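Hi F.,

I've been meaning to write this up properly since the lab meeting, where we talked about keeping a consistent format for the predictions we share between groups. The idea is simple: the sequence comes first, exactly as it goes in, then the structure tokens exactly as they come out, then a line or two of notes. No screenshots and no reformatting. I'm using this chain as the first example so we have something concrete to point to.
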Amino acid sequence: MIRQLLLGLVALLLTLLTWLGGGIVAQWLSPWTMWFALLLAEVLLVFPEQSREETIFDARRRVLRGLVRDPFTWFSLLLMLFLSIQWLNATTFLEWQVETQTWRVVSPAFAWLQSPETAAAMTVRPANPAAAAFLPVGSHPWAWLPGSLRADEAFGVLNWFVPVLTALLAVKHGLRKRSKRQLAFFVCAMTSILAVAGIIQFVLDGEFLYWGRKSHAFFFATFGYPNHAACFFPAVMAWAMGMLLWSVEHREHTRVRPWMYGVTVLLCAVSGILSGSRAGMLFTLALIAFTALYIPVRYLGSWAPQWRILVPLLLLIITGVTLGTAAFRIYAMTQNREAKAALAAATTPEARAAATKLRTYGTIPALDTVLMEIADTPWESFFEHPMLMRSGYQGILALRQAADHPWFGTGAWSFRWLNAKYIRPDVPEEQAWYKARLGSGQANVHNDTLQFLTEHGWVGFGLMLGCIASLCLPFLWQLLRSPQIVVNDDLADRTWFNRINAFYLYAFVGTALIAAHSFIDLVFRSPACMMLYGLFFVCAEGFLLGTPKAKPAATAPVGA
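Output, unedited:
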């Protein structure tokens, strides 16, 4: 039981983050996440998983030695320290309570850090007492340290990074290879249940969470933001596809039937399409197309003649049906739109009669809406400025804000409060854009790189990049050397590319999709997606098996 305690805690953390709104609802995370992170750290140091030949004391020494030597440990600790300083060094921020007609101090974290002008500011009523109002008072307690505008919002980011980084350290150093594979299987099983819940929810309503709690917005499964679901499910689809191929090639090391991973792949593909996000659809289609090409390339030379024809044909049919359905729905919606426009433009009975004769098709609301978004997207202009992409003016405002505060940034979630001051009054186009937005979507840049750079500066963002690099570089090294240590290559052609570890390859594809998605939306502002991204790197080692030991030669009996 003690041996599996760490594995169980990490699995529980991922489940909680995923099922509690994807981890984006701040009040659902605080304060349990910090205590959970402390528990994880204690179990990692006191009860790490042991191999059969080592004692608990040997396991503790191994873990401690690994933590000290790992750059990821130090980048993680420095990042936690940086975010903690931003949380403590927050300005005094007042929020007007309409019900009680009084000001409430929501920041800083402790009363002794409040600005001396707080009491005087609380006696002044806002210009519109009938509406909620916000009032920053004074400056940061320590002007020379990293700071933030609101301590409560800065603490929300701490609730993301501290438990996720602690869990990744626990998996990397506290779990053995077999447990990492078990955790990978758990990710597939848990996500399959979540996908089933989301599909049922989509069929029945699509606007509720946990059977009766109206969200007043589109939810898929437990993800209150469609693009978080569009990131999570295609990524797990790649995860499960890698495990499927790995389990086929290494059946002696797994008790799970490959078709079980196939079920996860199918459920995640459906969930990615139903998530209501064009990114989810595009990533799902990209994974299907990649797999349809990769599987025949990897295994064609080792199949029996009949399978060399049947399997590529089946994959071709699946790909053709998927892409064909998407193309037909785009065509159908285009025809419906043209027919509707012709009917609206008709001014004579003859024209109206001709418009009603135009052929129309039935609709599939969520699917058709997103497919038309894909068809209507001006892809040429979309990629003209890769760092801005769909963030548009919000990206420009973020760059202006980052230029004013390059080193420490302005604090977590500060973009939402400061972006208006970077609208240039002498540019009518910017003024018109800001008024048209009416506050919608302005809390985020919709580009994780720009948002983290703006809010945490080069120091905080550099520490985040250091964490990613310390995970990614060893992963890439193991990926490139995996063809040299294949245990069983009977099912793969004997070429370097086809001997690459299957899980590593799909982990690379999955992390690449998440990283690409983060440039056009805010996927790393969901701790569930953040933790899944890190688990790709730290769990992959469990699938890199060493070369089997040669069997000792039989000795001849004495006197033979």
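Notes:
The chain has 21 helices and five strands.
The first helix runs from residue 5 to 19.

If this format works for you, I'll send the rest the same way.

G.
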